[in-house]
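Q: What structure does this chain adopt?
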Amino acid sequence: MKVEILTPEKKLYSGEADLVKVPGTKGSFEILKKHAPLISTLEKGQIRIIDKNDQPVHFDISCGVVEVHKNVVTILAML
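A:
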């Protein structure tokens, strides 16, 4: 699935991933390929990505929003 993480200042990440774990307001959750459409708010925590080469990537955020639609994960975040 394609993942993009954007902040007001810059694009933090853009690439293919097998798994994305985000700090949802009601608890953290994971997003896998072909996940159902979803929009959720995010709280302070860490976004964890396992890219297509099984390499972990981490980003610390203070808040944000995630949208999943048609195998594309878009995260708008504040650092």
